[in-house]
């Protein structure tokens, strides 16, 4: 399999953490890509019309896009249990994944606003609104973190990658002060080999 990726992308990291946890990392060839919201990478677009990473190309040439789809495919391929079977546990895990992904979407929009837009085009109100979303998601994660224990599933992988991305791109947020229970959990989860192997520079 081949994965269009960017090392700093938290959604790519989510896929790679899942691959490591499932023992599939050595079956994936990494294809560096220059995904960008304005200067779109034609190589990715040929496989994924949205031109986004991660995009996974299967052995038969089929393209899978979006970290949620790719992670579930890898879990199926590796006969894992990152996604609970049908029932309340599955809906809870998928909802948690959505919360983590939403935090990441808001963080990426903050980054794009300050790194991609010209200074005269930036909106302080927009950034404030996205940071409020991050704060609300952090509160939800913090409230649940005491029950995570040593659990490794799509929810905790997404949360771990989201918190790591805040360290990378929004260190001024001081998320650990706002979410101490999540910080204590992340201190352990972040030491997993899968998290260390995928840590962005």
Low-confidence stretches: none
Could you state the order of secondary-structure elements as H and E?
EHEHEEHHHHHHH
Percent of residues in helices comes to: 55-70%
Largest beta-sheet characterization? 4 strands, mixed
Termini Cα gap:
24 Å
Structural class: alpha+beta
Strand order of the largest sheet: 2-1-3-4
Secondary structure tally, helices: 9
The counted number of beta strands is 4
Shape, principal axes of CA atoms = globular
The whole-angstrom Rg is: 17 Å
Q: Percent of residues in beta strands?
A: 5-15%
Average pLDDT for all residues:
93
Q: Which helices and strands appear, and what pairs or packs with what?
A:
Blueprint: E1 2-5, H1 10-21, E2 29-32, H2 42-45, E3 55-57, E4 63-65, H3 67-77, H4 88-115, H5 124-145, H6 154-169, H7 175-178, H8 180-189, H9 193-197
Helix pairs in contact: 1-3, 1-6, 4-5, 4-6, 5-8
Task: Describe the structure in your own words.
- The protein is of the alpha+beta class and 201 residues long.
- 56% of the residues lie in helices and 7% in strands.
- It has nine helices and four strands.
- It has helices at 10-21, 42-45, 67-77, 88-115, 124-145, 154-169, 175-178, 180-189, 193-197, and strands at 2-5, 29-32, 55-57, 63-65.
- The protein has a four-stranded mixed sheet with strand order 2-1-3-4, covered by helices on one side.
- The longest helix is centred in the middle third of the chain and has 28 residues, at 88-115.
- The radius of gyration is 17 Å and the shape is globular.
- The model has no long low-confidence stretch (mean pLDDT 93).
């Amino acid at each position: 399999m081949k994965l269009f990726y960017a090392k700093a992308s938290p959604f790519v990291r989510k896929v790679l953490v899942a691959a490591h946890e499932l023992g599939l990392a050595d079956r994936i060839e990494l294809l560096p890509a220059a995904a960008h919201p304005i200067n779109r990478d034609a190589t990715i677009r040929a496989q994924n019309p949205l031109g986004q990473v991660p995009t996974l190309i299967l052995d038969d040439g089929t393209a899978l896009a979006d970290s949620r789809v790719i992670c579930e495919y890898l879990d199926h391929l590796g006969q894992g249990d990152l996604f609970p079977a049908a029932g309340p546990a599955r809906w809870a895990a998928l909802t948690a994944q959505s919360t983590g992904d939403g935090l990441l979407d808001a963080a990426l929009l903050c980054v794009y606003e300050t790194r991609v837009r010209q200074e005269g085009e930036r909106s302080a109100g927009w950034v404030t609104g996205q940071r409020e979303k991050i704060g609300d998601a952090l509160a939800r994660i913090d409230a649940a973190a005491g029950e995570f224990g040593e659990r490794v599933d799509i929810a905790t992988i997404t949360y771990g990658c989201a918190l790591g991305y805040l360290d990378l791109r929004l260190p001024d947020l001081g998320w650990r002060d706002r979410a101490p229970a999540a910080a204590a959990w992340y201190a352990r989860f972040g030491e997993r080999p899968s998290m260390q192997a995928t840590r962005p520079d």
